[in-house]
Amino acid sequence: MEVSQEPQLPNYMKDDHVSQETENLIASLPSEKDFMGYGLYNYKGCWYYPNTLQAVLDVQKHFKPRDTDIILASLPKGGTTWLKSLVFSVVHREKYQENQQIHPLLSQNPHDLVPFLELELYANSQTPDLTKFPSPMIFSTHMHLQALREATTKASSPCKIVYVCRGIKDTFVSGWHYRNMLHRSKMGQATFELMFDAYCRGVLLYGPYWEHVLSYWNGSLEDKENFLFMRYEEIIEEPRVQIKRLAEFLNCPFTEEEEENGSVEEILKLCSLRNLSNLEVNKKGTTRIGIDTQVFFRKGEVGDWKNHLTPHMAKTFDEIVEHRLRGSGLIFQ
Ligand code: PAP
What we know:
By secondary structure, the chain is of the alpha/beta class.
């Protein structure tokens, strides 16, 4: 392995928080090593590290969303941090319109404002205290829809789910940089190629990519009232249109007055990569789950893959995605 120092493993990658029952389950599951040699297990079509699987099972068993809850879903590196910032700011905008200086995004990382169900809340407890978050509660998850549904179908009426995704090539490249930053080490070309191969086979945490995006795409086609399918590239291209679409979906559309007084632009500016990444809280320190806050912010460019993938790698990704999504109506350029 080319990693020069012992990697700082986040808890969700470990296997030290697993019940005997889950251990028995894991022993019966298909397994593979991830590109760095850590064990992944396939449960109902999706790959997990042991601690993540334990937490997913706990979410499925114990989390019961209320109809006012909002769940943000994504693959890692699909636009999670941005979506958290935007939804939090849109939903809670009335509270801070008089005094933007006290806006929580200025002093807290977006991941601490919108907690992950399985990576934070249910990672250490089957009965986390959910009352400490402002109402309406906004949660997030990287679980794919079939896995999430095991929890949401317990609710008496559906809650709103917003999904964001990004083309596979930029998601992959963003994930590569994230892993380098996370492990505080520059991994070499051989590891890059191993990660590429794992991605192509779908063997990565919450993968395969195509199953994940398809599960939410189909969900959004079946139930437009409760599912919103968003794309990172579209938010970059037409932020005003997309944020208004988001607000309408969440039943808090911008009023004419808000549009005139610049509320939309203010939120976009507050949530911009430039603004967030320059805040003290996002330059140093860690999130509640112990990840350096700065690793969530990098370039945020569409097409950065061109600087990292060979033409052959790019073509391989395009062909896989085209093949896997064929007939679904979901197309990535
Ligand atoms: P996560 O799933 O681990 O939370 P996620 O936020 O989905 O990660 O992805 C991080 C990517 O979003 C980074 O992209 P890059 O590697 O291509 O640069 C990061 O720069 C980008 N990002 C984070 N915050 C924002 C933001 N406010 N606006 C636009 N892009 C952002």
